[in-house]
Design a protein that fits this description.
mainly alpha; 6 helices; 0% strand
């Protein structure tokens, strides 16, 4: 019924590549925000930044931080890939709104102030998430066991 479409996937390589790459790129980001790894602020610091600086409601910010940590792991495993991809897509849409004013380009040369980079990265992550949301987890995924 409802569960089957969430896990339904075919053993295709393209969505597998999209979900693994997206998971591997987003996991360090989630580890920064949730656990303070790689020079990140950890859950408390990130929550404060998201609520105080960006103006997100506290509950929404907490869900976003948890999603940034859990969804990449789900994507790497290919477990509930569609749900995880939709979570990342929602975060990327939110990030697009905060980075839109900074223009398209990332801070490739370190010339911009911190957190003032553009949105090109967010569009790529959003596109990969949409691929997984549409096609499922693909080959080498836990979801294949439920298909």
């Amino acid at each position: 019924m409802f569960i089957r479409p969430v896990f339904d996937t075919k053993p295709d390589i393209a969505p597998m590549i999209a979900r693994i790459v997206l998971g591997l790129v987003m996991l360090p980001h989630g580890l920064q925000h949730a656990l303070g790894f790689f020079g990140g602020y950890g859950f408390k610091g990130t929550l404060g930044w998201m609520t105080d600086t960006l103006g997100f409601p506290k509950a929404l910010a907490a869900v976003a931080i948890a999603t940034e940590l859990i969804a990449p792991l789900m994507l790497i495993l290919g477990f509930g890939g569609r749900v995880a991809a939709l979570g990342i897509a929602a975060i990327m849409i939110g990030a697009l709104t905060t980075h839109w004013a900074n223009g398209f380009f990332m801070n490739w040369f370190g010339n911009l102030e911190p957190a003032k980079e553009g949105f090109e990265y967010h569009i790529l992550a959003l596109a990969l998430a949409i691929v997984v949301a549409i096609a499922g987890s693909g080959a080498l995924s836990v979801d294949l066991r439920f298909s």
